Amino acid sequence: MKKRTAPAADNHKQDKALLAAAVLKKHRQKIDKIDAQLLKLLGDRFDVVRDVANVKIKHDIPAFLGGRVNEVRNNAVKLGILYGIDPDFVRTLYTMLIYQSCAEEEVLKHEAQLEKAGIKKTPAARKPRKK
After folding, report:
1. Domain count, the chain
2. Which of 50, 64, 74, 101 is 20 to 30 Å apart from 108, CA to CA?
3. pTM (whole model) above 0.70
């Protein structure tokens, strides 16, 4: 049986991938480091969101407060422009962050209501992250 050889185009793609890995290594390492920092900061942000949720639960404040949502998103867009980031991207990113933050608050509110009713949390309930 004859051994099949890769077409020249496949070899070219492999060569380009190897070249990219070599010449972009430092840049990829920088991006990986920044990504780790971003995710740590997001974790810190969600820790604060959970603290806010507990205050809102205590004082019966809704998770979604439209004025604050707009303020946060608008502030982020302004900062994004300052740092050279596309405003539409920042608006989309913060819409997602705010949506997830409100969802986190709603989950905690629901868990608090269950606890108040004497119903234990399921084992799948979120645990606070380790710092």
Report:
1. 1
2. 74
3. yes
